[in-house]
Fold each of these.
Amino acid sequence: MTPQENLVTIKDGELQHIVRQVVTRVLAEQNAPTSNAPAAPAPKTIAIGADHGGVALKIDLAKYLAELGYAVNDCGAFSADPVDYPDIAYAVAKLVSDGAAARGIVIDGAGIGSAMTANKVPGVRAALCYDLSTARNAREHNDANVLTLGARLIGAGLARDIVKVFLETDCAEERHKQRVAKIMDVEKRYLRK
């Protein structure tokens, strides 16, 4: 077989899509520190990312976070071109896990897949929030450190309000802290070294 016979035929537009996916993945990996030792979170740094369905909301929330005085680490996507939400959710969750960001925000169409992905990263407690009550509960009761949002389910105004509550609410009561410690104990049972 000649080298020309081994070539794969790529249809118009497929190459551009493949290149975008590779670039998004590389950028996400560059934004995610590789240190294994957890560091103290940067108190005013928020990692944020979105897939193509959440880019517009991400841009709005990044501006809002800056207005609130937070430093923003944008993990992509940077256009409405299709990307895979697990890559973005992982990049945000890794920054939180490594202590490079105090909290993270991930936006996709419904927020569900990003929460599932982020929760696979050690030390991350991601919560899909769709109103102020769930945002407050996620922080007060579960000490969630990553917020996921569904861009197709909520508008920008509600998203801003959810983010504000999520960032301003603490897990203060001892009974809740004890329960969070139990969550982390479950995680430790399944960590592979």
Amino acid sequence: LTKWVARENRSRNRYGDMVPYDQSLVLLGRPWSTAISHPEPQITVGEAGQSYINASYVRRPEYGSRGEALMALITSLPEYIATQDPRENTVADFLTMVLEQRCPLIIMLSE
């Protein structure tokens, strides 16, 4: 689904070859608390198209007894959001996401 939505929203992606996974997709108008209470991705094409921003929730991995990183539990709280730096036409979406998700810190790594 996300690949299709990303293709449909090419003008909203800085890099077309980097798209979020459905299960970690941040949607505008859907705070992370909603994503946690309904962890399975239940995204319709229309919803994803209207609410799309190229951003993913990032959860800290769990660690096994030998120190190996394991996949985070879907119910664990996201600690970060990874996204692309906004384009001129997505600055408002970016700021909306920051406000809705209550991001306390923004770190930008870009050229």
Amino acid sequence: MEAIVPLEITDPGTGRVLVRNGVTLALFLDREVHECSDALMQALDLYLASVPPDALQWAVVSATSEEWRELDASAMQRIRESMEPAGARKRKLTAFRVNDAAGSAPQYGFLLAGRYRDKPDSMTLVQMTFPIEAADEAQADATCELAGHMAALLAPVSGYCAPALLQADAQQTDAFERIRGLALRHPGYDVAMNDLTRLRLGRQVRGARWITFLDAPLVQAVGGTQALHQALPAGIEVGQAGSTTVIRGGRTPEMGDRNRRIDTPLLRAVAKVLEPITLFREAKMLLYLANFDEDLLDRWERRFLD
């Protein structure tokens, strides 16, 4: 596989990085924060140990705050305390994010967005961001191993790890104007607003990605482990990370290129298997990625199926 070229699009007016390519690891849990607080704290520590010591500089420390503040010892202590069971049980929503930059598309980042008690289809989201080099041949196995450790620790309902087009949260509309064409050209890229998608994902997946995580009921919903092995061609690995089934669509991710007629056969095979449990018509993707064009959204969401 050709190495994925790092991409960075900067707004000349604000200096923010509007769009960056990176690697996203997203895990969706059907438990509230207080029910899995120990695992969440371990996941944060594992992420911190896997990135450079000075990578994370900024934080939004609670669900009620939208302001980025410097990630100092006090902010990190507040973040850790927010995951403790006693406080998380009383709180309507527990959420925080830590990034390498305030408002720009992140190169490094960790996001927790807890489940809403009054929304039965909502999930707790744990999402991590890495540089695009994490998908290169030299680092792909280590990335897959780390993702597997996270899945074994957190036992998600579903999740994925994939190259992604990441947007600046402070200028989402501007960012998606740049993302749209890139996403349609290179189908292997993930594009996400998972902090909102988690509100209605339920026991579904977001479609085919380089690495897919499924819990046992979702595996049964697509025919069981044996059916997975039979349906997926050589080049796709099916394994386990604790209780979680892991589908790896190639040693390195397929990116595809519509302009150069480079297809993504492994992702197509995974998408076909996952279609019965895939969430379509994501509302925020319709708004931001597709600019209210339902046909365009269908093209992107079904890019491996049609």
Amino acid sequence: IDVLGPATAKWDYLDAQGQLIAVVYRYDPPGRKKEFRPWDAKRRKMAPPEPRPLYNQPGIQDAAQVVLVEGEKCAQALIDAGVCATTAMHGANAPVDKTDWSPLKGKTVLIWPDRDKPGWEYAVQAAQAILSAGAKTCHILYPPEEAADGWDAADAVMEGFDVAAFLAHGPRVQVHDIADPGEPVIGADESVWGTEDALALAFTRRYHRDWRYVAAWGRWLVWDGRRWRNEETLAATDLIRGVCRHADLQADNPKLAAKLATSGTVGGVERQARADRRHAATTAEWDADPWLLNTPGGVVDLRTGRMRAHDRADRMTKITTATPGGDCPTWRQFIAEVTGGDAALQAYLQRMAGYALTGSTQEHALFFLYGTGANGKSVFVNTLATILGDYAANAPMDTFMETRTDRHPTDMAGLRGARFVAAIETEQGRRWAESKVKSLTGGDKISARFMRQDFFEFWPQFKLFVAGNHKPAIRNIDEAMKRRLHLIPFTITVPPERRDKHLQHKLLAERDGILAWALEGCLAWQRLGRLDPPPQVVAATEEYFEAEDALGRWLDERCVREANAKSLTAELFSDWKQWAEAAGEFVGSQRRFSDLLITRGVEKWRNAAGIRGFRGVGLKHPTQPAYTPYADD
């Protein structure tokens, strides 16, 4: 002990009556890792008591719910914050079988693991020991996905994290007692002791309510109390390993026991469990209701704005990062500034955001937020995307731009269930992939797959939000593109001295109010029955199409539109080709040229020799007569 220097912290372990059982000392020797040394009060020596006690037993005694964390520092941080917490001596390094878990009998236990692999593995093992000791229920909390590796309860308290909300509503998985004597692992319906099928049935009996497997995705989903979460930590395998480990201990045949302990058995049991009808699920059943929005506080019915409790039966895998409620004065001021105080444009942006909350694509719209920079468009998009959480996705700009190669189908797989898809920063000289835009906004079913998985199909629910400083070119101007594209001008440039580097952070502090603002917009959109873009959006969109309409400019500059005018297709195309090449526009084929004229209502015509042409259009300066008139024509 002398070489460790003086203790830097100490924690007293008391029994339920307040008598000292042990003391744990922390040492931080220079140039070495921290060390913990226990002192046994009964034996009066530096050694852990046998069995090892739990921390804070006087507090545990009268509590209905106890939070188990890793280490005394974490436990004391929660206790000081008013939470009944405990830890086993040495945290995740504590031997589970040498700890006395009996003080947790009859308690509701939440395990808050550190955000790392050892923390989760310890939590699963400790959960079984806690249930075997008679705990009423035991859940393991999922640390926030955005937290750093190793993040723990002490970090949460120090950062000002909302501990109360996390304990009440945070995502979690319930653990069941494998060795429940009222429901033995090997029952009457499992005739062959120790088979993979029998063990899979044992797992399913305990976890069928909370675990689903989607074969097309190659993924387990687990109910965490608020949504069905993609399980990426192999927790299902860990729980199955617990089933196999328990069967191993029960086996009286050493050869069978050795077999049950192998990774091959665990893997075989997991594959058997996947196929059980109580676990197996299809892709179509998830996030299917476009009018439900999952939030941390409950499920919002977007038709009415009312909220209800989370329910497994809703089959929701997505969740927002906010619960609608309160106001958002900073956000409202921001919207007023970027719109120049235009009330009609502000109301339209609110309806647009509200429409994005739904899974409906009935407007068939692509929202293009255009401005030359420092005008708030990216802040607008990024704020909404952050608040929408799992419902939002980022897409590379190439997804919507014309490219030489097709995008990989895995790019689209990540958009399943998304409602808000953002792409930021258009590049100069790029062109819209018009057929892709029409398909993605038209509600057509999408075929996609995850890496190394089979293809699956889904109905798109997402709305496209593209923000950029450059306007992509449009090659084919038609009614379908005109109906879809909404160009929203962001024309107010914020001067350098008024730019707030912390604006995004300030806005997200109002995320609940901003989501309530968007919900108001959703209800307003439904009442109105349409998005109803204001005059400045309509004018900016029309101006955009006019500037991109090369064929329209050619018709205005080089042609006459008269009922009795007639021209051969070859002559029109020759003039178009000459004009387009001089103007730097795409020429295309003669067939494409003819199709574009037809889409503009120009009537097809043939002369007496059967040569194709068009009626109602002629060249202002033809190089030769377009046709030879006949007396009977």
